[in-house]
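Moderator note: this is an archived Q&A kept for reference. The question asked for a predicted structure of one protein chain; the sequence and the answer are reproduced below.
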Amino acid sequence: MRGRGGTGPAGLGGDQVEGRRAVLELLAAGRRPVRRLVVAEGLDPSPQLDRIEELAVARKIPLQTVSPARLAALARTDAPQGVVALTRAIEPEPLEELCTRGDRGGALPFLLVVAGITDPRNLGSLLRSAEGAGVTGVVLPRHRSAHLSPAVAKVAAGAVEHLAFALVPGIAGALVTMAGLGVRSIGLAAEARRSIYELDVEDQAIALVVGGEERGLPALVRRRCDDLAAIPQHGALSSLNAGAAGAVACFEVARRRLAPARASAAASRGSSRARATRGSLAGASEG
């Protein structure tokens, strides 16, 4: 039986997408065939709905209009926003491929490893942040974890259409494989002595490891990480939730990885200005 939560079949999921933003991104990305689009009757006009319909017509996707009650019965989230898409499940990729493939600009792999997040909202939020930070692949455990349920995909707001996923039997074993392929793993742990802001992450393949909502990183996973890092807290609470902590760490790694490129670009601009200045002075002296 399939419920409205985030855990379920052994596969990744993703075969049902709900919510306007998530469905729109599914259609716009065009990475997966969509079998049917179901829309509730009587919805107020919306640019998003217009665009969804345009894309469905352009891709020749069957469009079915049903009563709000029937759509609610089909939906697996509490607020599908009047739109449900039935599509092909997301296929996992080999872990080894994620460890050796960077982004389109040639940057080294930047992976997110999810070690036991079961709350679909936390996972969805984390995936949305990861995609925005330039994560090139996500590693999920096959068991005891949220997968790409409709709730996760809805909160992720289309991010699942732009991320590659690997599904592994266990995170601890996956970290061993990743280390053998040159990927450095950094586990987020509130009690770690080093701050995420102190780590050198610029010129290497990186995997951020985020633990579950209550217990954090499992003990064996913690031991298999190359480094542990904390996010400094300055308020009364001792830690962030998994989704928020992962988002902070993802964007810090992204910032640090961009720094050398920005420094190189600034140096290049400085050299160009210097050459232009020398050329102007030489011209003036000749005159």
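Archived answer notes: The longest helix spans residues 242-286.
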